[in-house]
Amino acid sequence: xxxxxxxxxxxxxxxxxxxxxxxxxxxxxxxxxxxxxxxxxxxxxxxxxxxxxxxxxxxxxxxxxxxxxxxxxxxxxxxxxxxxxxxxxxxxxxxxxxxxxxxxxxxxxxxxxxxxxxxxxxxxxxxxxxxxxxxxxxxxxxxxxxxxxxxxxxxxxxxxxxxxxxxxxxxxxxxxxxxxxxxxxxxxxxxxxxxxxxxxxxxxxxxxxxxxxxxxxxxxxxxxxxxxxxxxxxxxxxxxxxxxxxxxxxxxxxxx
Length: 256
Description:
Layout: H1 5-14, H2 25-35, H3 44-58, H4 64-76, H5 88-106, H6 150-155, H7 169-182, H8 192-199, H9 204-214, H10 221-233, H11 243-254
Helix pairs in contact: 1-2, 2-3, 4-5, 5-7, 5-9, 8-9, 10-11
């Protein structure tokens, strides 16, 4: 029971449907591996069970691609963004991969920051051309020339509207990541999606990555629950129910 208790707790947490679970895979795996370390009080049977479970768990999520994905998911979860189990070099590598992920996610929708300032100059109407009359039929129509002010005469050739160059997408993402790392982490009981909903205006580029990744379920439990509930409702004697009625009945049963 002592060996299996951490497995039960992790299973209960990972089966949740009310909060994101994909960001929990990496920290939960690390916790389980720690719980399977042998100690002096363990009997021979306990050591054997721990060794079997630990060896099997080490094979899970071991590919480089899977590790990178799970670490990015943990980093984009504000509860685990400090990545305490990694050293400084590994942590920087994770945030570099997060930067690349954010660039690819936002590349199609955001190009450059509109940061160019334009002067607020009055609108000048273009003068109408001189109307032709019978006395000046041989003269070409010419627009009236606006008289320049003394200031325009003196500085018109050297006056340049100053502008600030816009930041590139990469620079904006780096800036968001640095500010994101400095934010206080929420409580473990707080939903990360609620946190991102409140801070999406502060980190609009990273928020898109969070929305894309944190919505991925870590287990098949939610889909299995839907099919299980539907199987209890749509029986042989109720096979004529329309899809809309089935959806309403499933929703009501899940929320009772």
